[in-house]
Amino acid sequence: MTTNGLARAGAAAAGVALWSNIMAGQQPPQNLPDPIVRENVTVKLAPHSYVIPDGNVVLVPNIGIVVGTGATLVVDTGMGPRNGAAVMREVGKVSRNSKIFLVTTHFHAEHVAGISAFPAGTTYIISRQQQKDLDELGPDLTKRFATFSPGIGEMLKDAPVRKADVLFDREYTIDLGGVAVKLLALGSTHTPGDTVVFVEQDRVLYAGDVVMNKVPVAFGQTSSVPVWVNVLKQLEPLRPVAIVPAHGPVGDGSLIAQQREVFEALQGRVPQLKAQGKTADDAATMLTAEFQAKHPDWTAANRIGGMVRSLYADASRNP
User: Fold this and answer.
1) CA distances, 274 to each of 91, 192, 209, 311 (Å)
2) What is the rounded distance in angstroms from the CA atom of residue 290 to the CA atom of residue 309?
3) What is the pLDDT of residues 90-139, one digit of tens each?
4) What is the pTM (predicted TM-score) of this model?
5) Which pLDDT score, from 0 to 100, does residue 221 have?
6) Which CATH architecture has domain 3-259?
7) Cα 28 to Cα 15: distance, rounded to the nearest angstrom
8) Please, are residues 173 and 162 in contact by the beta-carbon 8 Å criterion?
9) How many angstroms separate the CA atoms of 100 and 74, rounded?
10) Three-state secondary structure readout of 73-97
11) What is the pLDDT of residue 318?
């Protein structure tokens, strides 16, 4: 494996351990690096679309920047105002627009908690469901994030997340001047209010945690395999040429089909194992091993277990 591959695998493993502990109500792994958004590394993906890459650091998201002739859109903020300020400095290097829009892909702190460093006139747009997530779940989760390490705790001091200026239900389009950006909230996936951002002229998709690059998606308590597959089916007609996941390397449009293939393979195998009398835990172990054998270049195979257990729960509710 290359050095970059090793770094990516290490970051993915740390991310899996982190989210596993969050789901179980436990503390995260020790010695997490401070989640700092890097400056002077912004990459131009297409005429209007940029990304500040995460650098394979846990709890640093890929930050999107979309520049039109009249306004600029930022996708996600980084963890706390220190990172939000770094994002805005990067925005200033690729755009002179005074009008700023912000959309966050979901309510977790590394995606929303830098908003207080954005200009006062920033127009914040999210789905109605994501606002509900922020109101009902955001404060407690952010408090938990603040206990992960002294560095993260410091970043989240005085990091208020304000109400959105504009709420939408399923779809919202922003005209930045010469480029249209479509915001889509298609169903509960990683979180109930996940939102993806599609730059129509560039065919760039900022996918949040809905589509990942050679990493199984992160399942939560509200996640559903059938719903996630349905969301992926709705994304396929967009035919993006570049997909920016919330974390990890940028990929091409094939990432959607790759994720869908993983889900549909599990949907086919779970009924077989259940009919053989296998328990959900047995099936999770077996299907994780099958996944690793079929996809040796993917990381975070432990996430397969969450999908399998969800499918078993669905089968029990709908025998």
Assistant:
1) 51, 28, 29, 10
2) 16
3) 999 999 999 999 999 999 999 999 999 999 999 999 999 999 999 999 99
4) 0.93
5) 87
6) 4-Layer Sandwich (3.60)
7) 9
8) no
9) 7
10) EEECCCCHHHHHHHHHHHHHHHCCC
11) 72
Residue 31 is predicted with a pLDDT of 74
Residue 152: which H helix or E strand, with range? helix 150-155
Tokens of 79: 């963890």
Helix (H, G, I), strand (E, B) or coil at 182: strand
Neighbours of 135 (CB within 10 A): 12
Q: What is the pLDDT of residue 14?
A: 54
The answer to whether the beta carbons of residues 78 and 37 sit under 8 Å apart is: yes
Closest CA to 35 of 186, 197, 150, 175: 150
How far, in Å, are 189, 258, 291, 294 from residue 271 at the CA level?
22, 21, 17, 20
Query: Could you give the CA distance from residue 151 to residue 293 in angstroms, rounded to a whole number?
Result: 38
For the chain, how far is it from start to end, CA to CA, in angstroms?
44
Under 8 Å CB-to-CB from 10, ≥6 apart: which residues?
56
Residue ranges of the chain with per-residue pLDDT less than 70: 1-30, 319
